[in-house]
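Example record

The entry below shows one chain as it appears in the dataset: sequence first, then structure tokens.
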Amino acid sequence: MRGTGTKSRLMAAVVVAVAAPVAAQEKPGFRDTPMLPGSQWRVHDADRPAPGVVAPAAIPGGPPADAVVLFDGRSLDAWKPDRSAWPIENGVLTVPSRATSGGENNLVSKRSFGDLQLHLEFRSPTPPTKSSQDRGNSGIWFMQRYEVQILDGSQNPTYADGTVGAVYGWKPPLVNAARRPGEWQTYDIIFERPRFAADGALRRPAYVTALLNGVLVQNHQAMLGTTIWRKVARYTAHGDAAPIQLQDHDSPVSFRNIWVRPLPAAAIAQDLGRGGR
């Protein structure tokens, strides 16, 4: 009997020894894991807050639940033009003729933004009647300063830093992913605003990541500064938020389905050990 009891105790010890690591692995978050660099959290920390829930759009390309809808095909309530309203027809917004508007007539958002995710769909006029920079030209100006180019890029030779997908006057797109004129195209862009010190010195440049028709054309690309035609861009200190501008470049480019998600500071990439927010 005594031998049997000893054997039972040994078997129980083996079961506990085998079970203990399994139980530890099942516990969410290890208290003895190392601290993450530049963070208050440990690896797999159970106390780290879970991400918030955002309902995605039911239709691909549609605005998620937390988006600010700038154009849904019905009104220009979210915008103010430089001169006169851009016409809306069949849910489509189009740059008006300058003969009608009386001159350059950009469209400016009433709301200001800093860091953001933007979705926009555009269409170049067809049939194309001009070439190079006079063909399907417009642009998205973040904070009314930093331009990502819109152009008819289908079989339309032009300078590389001015084609569709370019950071205008600075970085050509990684590839030409343009559709044919008359076809709807999509931009999905992440814009990170620049950071300035109290004395106006640049602490961190603006960055842009852009997908054109689902194809990466700018990958977390630093921007040189405010876009200036035929000059090297440079930074001048400004506020943390400013409007988005759609450019009138005297070409009847059309737009639809425009929405923005303002991004929190936690969404902005941080260089380890250097901060930058």
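Notes for this example: The first helix runs from residue 2 to 26. Residues 134 and 251 are 7 Å apart (CA to CA).
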